[in-house]
Inverse folding.
């Protein structure tokens, strides 16, 4: 079996500095779950949480368990905007929803909102609206507002952060660190 050091040796030398603890994440999740439960208390339509793979998988798994009302969940995969700087916006939906969203209140769950280009140019929200969802809103674990290039209305946000590259709790650096129970900042060594 590969040792961690064998895997990470392929990457530039770097370290991961603890940033948001497991306890802070879990505490904020309880608050978000409570807020969502309250907001949809008198709504008698199905509530569907749609996680954007892969980064939101762990956040969504914990979030649904902090909501005390019936909730469905599903996942989509969209091709990453990556490091592209152009705004012509070729972003595709790689894995679509499994079931109909008609008549459901949908919350799109993202790990982190950065420039906003992926969400905008995947037309994910428009797509879900066009399929007659009752409502569509956005929930992000992390928001980097200073990096935004297109406006995105965020209804639920875990933490607002400065412009750091973060990993852990579902988020990756070259597919590594998704399994960290906390969020860390990647510092590339000189
Ligand atoms: P935007 O909003 O720029 O975000 O379209 C696109 C995707 O980029 C990822 N992203 C990150 N992933 N650490 C990560 O692991 C980060 O600091 C980071 N910033 C952006 C994220 O998947 C987002 O959906
Ligand atoms: Mg993502």
């Amino acid at each position: 079996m590969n040792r961690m050091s064998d895997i990470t040796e392929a990457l530039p030398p770097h370290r991961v500095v603890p940033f948001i603890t497991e306890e802070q994440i879990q505490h904020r999740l309880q608050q978000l779950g409570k807020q969502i439960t309250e907001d949809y208390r008198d709504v008698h339509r199905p509530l569907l949480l749609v996680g954007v793979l892969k980064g939101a998988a762990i956040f969504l798994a914990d979030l649904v368990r902090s909501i005390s009302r019936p909730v469905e969940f599903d996942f989509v995969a969209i091709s990453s905007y990556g490091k592209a700087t152009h705004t012509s916006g070729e972003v595709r939906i790689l894995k679509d929803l499994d079931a109909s969203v008609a008549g459901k209140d949908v919350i799109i769950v993202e790990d982190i909102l950065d420039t906003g280009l992926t969400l905008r140019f995947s037309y994910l929200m428009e797509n879900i609206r066009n399929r007659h969802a009752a409502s569509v809103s956005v929930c992000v674990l992390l928001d980097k507002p200073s990096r935004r290039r297109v406006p995105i209305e965020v209804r639920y946000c875990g933490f607002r952060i400065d412009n750091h590259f973060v990993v852990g709790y579902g988020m990756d650096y070259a597919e590594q660190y998704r399994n960290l129970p906390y969020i860390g900042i990647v510092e590339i060594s000189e």
User: Anything to note?
Assistant: The two ends are 30 Å apart (CA to CA). Residues 22-39 form the longest helix (18 residues).
